[in-house]
Each structure stands twice: as structure tokens, then as C-alpha cells.
Design the sequence.
């Protein structure tokens, strides 16, 4: 569930290009807003329209606004390219009761096993 209300996100979309309302010092901490807006199709479409207009005519905008729109556009584009991956199977297997070899005892059978846990999202 979102920590931001829809009206708040709508207000953000309407005002994120106005530095007098959302100062430049806030730019580094706006990513959570971008991410939540990307989850709502209506807000995403509005934000994308605004960002496309700014980036198309970037020379007539404050560089800070161009930076925000560039980052926001990237988050919106990423949400379209990487839909939720529901086909991943995550399974934990308890191998402590398994006997891998008749030549090793229960303490030694895991001696050569190297277990690595990686965050798959980094590679998908």
C-alpha cells in the first residue's frame, strides 16, 4: 500500500516543475514520489506528458526542472520495461536431512557446499 495519498500525488504531479513550491534542495529526495506515481496509470500518463514537454523544449526550462523531469521520465520508463515478474520461483530447501554420499557422515556432507544468496533484482 502506498504511503502517499492519491490527492497528494496529484498535487505533486501538478507542481513538481515549480521550484517556488518544491525547492531545488528537495530534488534528491523525490524518488519515492516518482515510484508511487509510476504505479498509478492516470498519474503516470499526466507526469509523462509534462516530462515529455519539458524534455522536448529543455532549453527554455531551468536546469533543475530538466534534471527532475529526466529522472522522473527514467523511473516512468523503467516501470513500463520491467513489469512485475510473477514467474520467479523462490524455494528454500532443507538439506540437513539429506545424505549425499555413503562415504561421508552427516557432519561432512555439507563441507564442500558453498551457498550464495544474491538479490535477483540486480540482474533482471
Sequence:
Amino acid at each position: 500500500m502506498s504511503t502517499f495519498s492519491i490527492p497528494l500525488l496529484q498535487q505533486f504531479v501538478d507542481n513538481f516543475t515549480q521550484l517556488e513550491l518544491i525547492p531545488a534542495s528537495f530534488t534528491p529526495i523525490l524518488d519515492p514520489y516518482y515510484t508511487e506515481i509510476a504505479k498509478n496509470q492516470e498519474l503516470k500518463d499526466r507526469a509523462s506528458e509534462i516530462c515529455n514537454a519539458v524534455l522536448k523544449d529543455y532549453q527554455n526550462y531551468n536546469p533543475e526542472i530538466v534534471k527532475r523531469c529526466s529522472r522522473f521520465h527514467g523511473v516512468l520508463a523503467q516501470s513500463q520495461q520491467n513489469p512485475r515478474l510473477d514467474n520467479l520461483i523462490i524455494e528454500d530447501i532443507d538439506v540437513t536431512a539429506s545424505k549425499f554420499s555413503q562415504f561421508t557422515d552427516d557432519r561432512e556432507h555439507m563441507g564442500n557446499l558453498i551457498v550464495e544468496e544474491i538479490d535477483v533484482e540486480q540482474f533482471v
Remarks:
- The chain is about 45% helix and 0% strand.
